[in-house]
Amino acid sequence: MKRVAVVLAAGAATRFGSDKLSAPLGGEPLILHAIRAARAAPVARVIVVARPGLATGDWPGDPPVEVVRIASTALSDSLRAGIAAAGDAGAAFVFLGDMPLVPHTIAARLAARIGDRYAAMPRDDGRPGHPVLLSRRAFADIARLTGDEGAGRLLRQRDDVLFDECTNPLIHFDVDRPEDLGWLASRARSDE
Question: Which residue range or ranges hold the MobA-like NTP transferase domain (predicted)?
């Protein structure tokens, strides 16, 4: 099955107070870490949905990285744009641009276990996290989302979502404030 990864990176970052996806983490902009995690997934290509002006870097090699620019900061608009760009893909991973340290091994586990389910996602301590793997069956539902909502409500309404149990809190941790970068930097050093 042909899968793609979608990295959502068009948000307004109002709680951060400035351009958080360009903020440095380990000497690189935050967004580059999220793209690297998406590229490590078992996918044919990576689609980065970004706001105008966000530097997403140059990514030679495989899987190829393409950028879709949108002016809207609404989460549903970003998700719809990424899924629309997925074309005929059989499934799509959804990564968040402000979740830079999602463990690279999780995506392969989700791909191996999803089967004919609607979606698959990791879960730690009873809480679902990212990345989320959406089957092609979810694409039409995603196309109908509106406002500042992602796929969470859709996934909570389904009984055919696979939860892959793990013990890594980084599947939950997104950067909201500048001080979050310090915690992530210390976590990244301790995981080396």
Answer: 5-160
pTM of the model: 0.93
Question: What's the pLDDT at 192?
Answer: 40
On the question of pLDDT at 159 being above 90, the answer is yes
Please give the residue range of the domain that contains residue 136: 3-191
CATH number for the domain harbouring residue 91: 3.90.550.10
Lowest mean pLDDT: which of 37-51, 88-102, 162-176?
A: 162-176
